[in-house]
Amino acid sequence: MAHYVDVEDAVGMPGLRVVLTPGVPGPWSEAAKAILHVKKLAHVKVRQELLGSNLPLIRWTAQATAPVAVWNGEPPRSTWIEQLYLFEWLAPEPALIPRDVDERMLMFGLANEIFGENGFVWNRRHLMVRDFSGPDQPPEIRESFRFLGRKYGCGDAAAAAAPARCAEVMGLLADRLRSQRERGSRYCVGASLTALDLYAACAYALVSPLPQDLCAMTPLFRAVYTTGDPVVRAAAVPILGEHRDFIYRQHLELPVDL
Ligand SMILES: N[C@@H](CCC(=O)N[C@@H](CS)C(=O)NCC(=O)O)C(=O)O
Asked: Could you name the domain of life of the organism this protein comes from (predicted)?
């Protein structure tokens, strides 16, 4: 297992510190780790307490989620887009943001569909809340998901809209990968790896996680991450899983180190 330090110890350290949730392959956190891996960026991993009060983290970063990236005395970066710009600045090569403006607009547009507010991951979380906060669940699990539901605005309307929204983003990605394949590329944009490939690959864990030997998850998390929603399952066309497997095999660390 990766080595994590406590927030209290990390605050006074220099350099790059990245707050993550040990043992949980959350897409935003795995994507931050993927970028750090590809860029070989030295960093200290810092522990977020899953669904804990995280008071030291709130004092340090003014929020409680993971991931967060903190560079020296600069303001903490708690969103994927700020983190990408920071990592790209600290280690410009290999570049994960396309230099071509059309490719760049395409990449950030699709990345926002996957990772932005009301994007794929956000809506997939609504479905987790829907499926794991009912009265049939053990109280501890039910309360955890109800907490997430309150925090991230998951009411009945949001849950009802979520499957189609997830499927919409998956369809956009699948179309993109198909047209790239026709041009002879296995990547989402252009001819080489970009951050979008990492985001798509990490987000796919919320449809079908990597097998247990490549990503060891507790039975609960495996159940939560594997969706049985018929609309989302219908959108899970093979090219999406093939792309995820290709990106992990070619560019990322396997088995996943949580
Ligand atoms: N702030 C990140 C997203 C991070 C995020 O939402 N993390 C969630 C994953 S479920 C989290 O840590 N939730 C636990 C909590 O809110 O206590 C971004 O917008 O890029």
From this structure: Bacteria
Cα diameter, the chain: 51
pLDDT on residue 52: 87
Do 29 and 69 reside in the same domain of the chain?
Answer: yes
User: Based on the domain organization, do 219 and 138 belong to the same domain?
Assistant: yes
Question: For residue 59, is it within any domain?
Answer: yes
Identify the segments of the chain with pLDDT beneath 70. none
Token pair 């897409």 in the structure block, residue = 27
Mutational test site, ligand 1, from 65, 108, 125, 147, max ligand atoms within 8 Å of CB: 65
Q: What is the pLDDT of residues 93-106, one digit of tens each?
A: 999 999 999 999 99
227 lines ligand 1 (CB under 6 A): no
In a domain, 95, yes or no: no
How many whole angstroms from 232 Cα to the centroid of ligand 1? 21
Radius of gyration of the CA atoms of the chain, in A: 18
Q: Which residue has a Cα nearest atom 5 of ligand 1?
A: 65
CATH at residue 23: 3.40.30.10
Task: Compute the Cα dihedral for 218, 224, 228, 234 and give only its sign.
Answer: negative
User: Which pLDDT value is given to residue 195?
Assistant: 98
